[in-house]
Inverse folding.
């Protein structure tokens, strides 16, 4: 007669079967496995190993934040008009060549996407090696193929100082479902491409096919006090935008979609006289040129 095992004893035996017995594999405790060797077989320096580990950590964090944003087809309804999809940019870290000022810098990143502006938190005392690990999610308008990036040193008693800037082309491979992670050179007082570099991770979620309606969702981040503190001396160059292979100036507007109205824009400025005109314009455009939607969004910003 077979002897029946106690349930707890049976569980203990099952767990023992899954135990790894023997020597641990090489690179057991390294992030993402063993680091890559250089092609000629030269041993990696400690700095190169750390850079590879940082890159692996950046991709892992980006994928984690991307997953937490929801499934790829999870879009709020209704959809914004003239939108290609949702762009995700993870601003990981930067390596700057110079610390401007007498104290350690407090850098933050500002990103321009079309008429929208997004910012990371400030890395207090980040100095020449700031880390943000911040993912920005935004709708990517049709025809926008570049972002403009700036790094500022946050100042308490004066206007924030521009440290570095760069025009960055959105990688084409992300539109095929891939994730792009790359170090981009920065421009500044030391010269073009000589101010350091910044690590960005790009991915993209295509908009589902279907009818689109004016956007009445959230608006871009605007710091407290509007643009009062944001009058910096540097004006970003406007990238040339193309739609369907033609310059914007040659594209015939679709009359079925709402168009910009000077009268509505003027009324919005009169309704919110203390709000910066560029902020009002950005909210008006984000609302699909709907005066009522823009007014409601601006009222929410004033609360």
């Amino acid at each position: 007669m077979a002897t029946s095992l106690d349930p707890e004893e049976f569980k203990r035996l099952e767990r023992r079967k899954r135990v790894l017995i023997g020597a641990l594999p090489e690179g057991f405790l390294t992030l993402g496995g063993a680091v890559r060797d250089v092609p000629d077989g030269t041993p990696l320096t400690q700095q190169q190993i750390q850079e590879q580990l940082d890159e692996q950590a950046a991709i892992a964090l980006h994928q984690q934040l991307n997953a937490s944003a929801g499934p790829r087809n999870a879009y709020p309804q209704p959809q914004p008009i003239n939108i290609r999809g949702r762009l995700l940019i993870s601003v990981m870290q930067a390596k700057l060549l110079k610390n401007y000022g007498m104290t350690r810098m407090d850098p933050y990143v500002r990103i321009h996407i079309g008429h929208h502006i997004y910012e990371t938190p400030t890395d207090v005392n980040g100095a020449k090696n700031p880390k943000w690990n911040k993912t920005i999610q935004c709708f990517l308008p049709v025809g926008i193929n570049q972002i403009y990036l700036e790094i500022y040193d946050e100042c308490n008693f004066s206007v924030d100082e521009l440290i570095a800037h760069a025009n960055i082309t959105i990688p084409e491979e992300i539109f095929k479902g891939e994730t792009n992670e790359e170090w981009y050179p920065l421009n500044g007082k030391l010269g073009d491409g000589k101010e350091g570099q910044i690590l960005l991770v790009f991915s993209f979620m295509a908009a589902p096919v279907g009818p689109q309606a004016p956007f009445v969702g959230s608006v871009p981040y605007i710091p407290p006090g509007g643009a009062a503190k944001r009058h910096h001396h540097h004006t970003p160059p406007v990238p040339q935008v193309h739609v369907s292979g033609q310059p914007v100036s040659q594209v015939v507007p679709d009359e079925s979609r709402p168009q910009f109205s000077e009268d509505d824009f003027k009324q919005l400025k009169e309704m919110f006289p203390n709000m910066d005109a560029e902020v009002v314009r950005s909210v008006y455009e984000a609302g699909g040129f709907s005066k009522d939607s823009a007014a409601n969004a601006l009222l929410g910003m004033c609360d």
User: Anything to note?
Assistant: The longest helix spans residues 46-68.
